[in-house]
Design a protein that fits this description.
With 290 residues, the chain is mainly alpha-helical. The chain has 15 helices and no strands.
Length: 290
């Protein structure tokens, strides 16, 4: 049973998903030489140049050339970008090449070329809101040991939480553990943001409890998100307490954190207090508020 099937299956998970994945997409052969290019490679190619060439090859379904370019660009110091897989679009004809593309990535050079390419393909699919297809990519990374880590799952968790598909997002965290990948504070911050944006402090406190239980260290984003949640729920006093705790602990305070408090005060009609707060905190990003 693949990760994708398990995401939609509400029965308890088996203890080890590594023992049950089918051996899909594994190809041991190396890339054959690509066909001739329209023009010679520049002496000093750029990432933008490689993105354009990969786009042309991908649109033509030429996976041999795609693989050749993905390897060569890393060797030339031109790493992949968010545009590398822009030839993958949200159409059935485009998505029909996904299996072939996964096979191509499986044959890339070990290490950075392969791992980075897989991660960016997941990013691209999630941008297209194709989280199920992203989990198919995860399947291959788990099965073949392609350096899967928490960052590989983050685009999926982010996409699901943005769509308020919280049950599925939590299940992805369970799948991470089954794959031997522990969620980190960034993983939980995605969940926290979704709850706090709606002012759902009860659900947010559940996330904070999980962070504490797993012994993870919170960061500035965690505090920023909790302050947002408190302000959304009309708990400005609580937000100020969190802000003070944040600074006392030495965390960097972003402008967005101050803006959350200012907006929360204005929403409650605390105009004079808002002016005083701005006067004290103005221009002190990352600093003390008095």
């Amino acid at each position: 049973m693949s990760i994708l099937r398990k995401l939609h299956n509400k029965s308890p998970y088996p203890r080890s998903i590594l023992k049950i994945f089918p051996t899909r997409f594994f190809v041991a052969a190396q890339h054959p030489n690509p066909g001739p290019f329209d023009e010679p490679f520049p002496d000093e190619p750029t990432s933008a140049y490689y993105d354009e060439q990969v786009y042309k090859a991908g649109r033509n379904g030429d996976m041999v050339t795609v693989g050749y370019l993905l390897n060569k660009r890393v060797r030339d110091g031109c790493f992949n970008t968010a545009k590398t897989f822009s030839f993958v679009t949200n159409t059935e004809s485009s998505l029909s090449i996904l299996d072939s593309l996964i096979q191509t990535l499986s044959r890339l050079d070990k290490g950075v070329p392969r791992k980075h390419a897989f991660d960016l393909l997941i990013v691209r699919l999630c941008k297209l809101e194709r989280t199920d297809e992203s989990l198919r990519v995860i399947d291959t990374m788990v099965e073949e040991g392609y350096g899967l880590n928490a960052a590989s799952f983050h685009p999926i968790v982010s996409a699901l939480t943005k769509k308020k598909k919280m049950e599925k997002a939590w299940r992805v965290l369970d799948l991470m553990r089954e794959a031997g990948v522990l969620p980190n504070v960034t993983t939980y911050n995605f969940l926290l943001t979704a709850y706090c944006f709606k002012g759902k402090l009860t659900e947010a406190s559940t996330v904070v409890k999980k962070i504490e239980e797993e012994g993870l260290a919170v960061n500035s984003r965690t505090f920023d998100t909790l302050i947002l949640g408190a302000c959304k729920a009309g708990k400005v006093e609580g937000a100020l307490v969190l802000l003070r705790s944040m600074m006392d602990a030495g965390f960097y305070v972003m402008y967005s954190t101050y803006i959350h408090v200012i907006n929360g005060m204005l929403k409650l009609g605390y105009y004079e207090q808002t002016v005083r707060f701005v006067m004290v905190s103005g221009g002190r990003e990352g600093g003390d508020v008095g």
